[in-house]
Amino acid sequence: MKKRFNAYDKTTDEFLDNILVVCPNCGNKAIVRLKNTHEKDTKMSCTFCGANKYYVDVPKEKYVSERSGLVHEIEDVILGKNIDPYFHLPLWLQKETSKGIVWAYNYEHLEYMENHIGAELRYRDATHNHFRSLGAILPKWMTAQKNRKEVLNTIKMLKQKK
Ligand SMILES: [Zn+2]
């Protein structure tokens, strides 16, 4: 029986509540939590060394509006890279392959990618926000038939990483 799996109904945003990163202080696994879906409440914490960091304290570039004279902060949220969007720390779950870097925000994200890449039958239904969906943003090399085995093996290895 062929596996049928639809990766086009989920976005990476759904994996942003808990992001596993490398602690900048001790190099162990730390977590970036998005609280109350408000970016200002986002916090990085490490249970190994007790490091804490709030997104609100991260220095941001500022600009002064010529018209109003008000100072604006430039929010620097980076999505779709092998760093966390807020503190830009390297992700805990990433590994280089011969074709590129496989990365995930957390174990659920890995699981999701595994299902997507492992599915023999993928279908795209042009419903809500499919342009931002995970299926649409996975790089082509990850889903190419010839790389599938290597990518899946890499995902399996990452799933073992505690
Ligand atoms: Zn630490």
Tell me the layout of helices and strands.
Blueprint: E1 4-5, E2 18-22, E3 29-33, E4 43-45, E5 52-54, E6 62-64, E7 71-73, E8 93-96, E9 101-104, H1 107-118, E10 121-122, H2 134-137, H3 140-143, H4 148-160
Parallel strand pairs: 1-10
Antiparallel strand pairs: 2-3, 3-4, 4-5, 6-7, 8-9
Helix pairs in contact: 1-4
The chain binds zinc ion.
Description:
The protein is of the alpha+beta class and 162 residues long. The protein is 20% helix and 21% strand. It has one domain (4-58, 72-160). It has helices spanning 107-118, 134-137, 140-143, 148-160, and strands at residues 4-5, 18-22, 29-33, 43-45, 52-54, 62-64, 71-73, 93-96, 101-104, 121-122. Helix 1 (107-118) packs antiparallel against helix 4 (148-160). The radius of gyration is 18 Å and the shape is globular. It starts with a strand and ends with a helix. Mean pLDDT is 84; it is low at 125-131. Zinc ion binds next to loops. Residues 23, 25-26, 28, 30, 46, 48-49, 51 line the site of zinc ion. It comes from Flagellimonas hadalis.
